[in-house]
Specification:
Layout lengths: L1 E8 L8 H4 L1 H8 L4 E8 L6 E8 L2 H8 L2 H11 L7 E6 L15
Antiparallel strand pairs: 1-3, 1-4, 2-3
Length: 107
């Protein structure tokens, strides 16, 4: 699995509309055959920092994603709304998705 985490700091005027701005990109990516998950969240420390956690089945699926038309369109759209260059972690993980956390379970 390819695991990617990206932090986007958006300009103040885009804070409230960021998720709408990236909605087409989000939907199109989630529809990709090799996409395992594509989830947005907001930092509790900086309300203008959005964190994207995404997973792809393998390197080929990740490559197809970054070479897709919706990826290129999203990069163009996002460029006008970000305040800084996004920070990214991209790595290969041995599993094929989420696993249960062994240290914690509900009572």
């Amino acid at each position: 699995m390819i695991l990617i985490v990206v932090k986007f700091t958006v300009r103040p005027e885009y804070r409230d509309e960021w998720l709408s701005l990236v909605d087409d990109f989000t939907r199109a990516t989630r529809d990709e055959p090799g996409n395992l998950f594509f989830e947005w969240s907001v930092s509790v420390d900086n309300p203008r920092e959005f964190v994207l956690v995404e997973g792809f089945a393998d390197r080929e699926a990740g490559d197809a994603h970054v070479n897709s038309q919706h990826f290129r369109a999203a990069m163009d759209t996002m460029a006008g709304a970000i305040e800084t260059t996004p920070q990214i972690i991209s790595t290969e993980a041995p599993n094929k998705g989420w696993s249960a956390m062994g240290e914690l379970s509900p009572r």
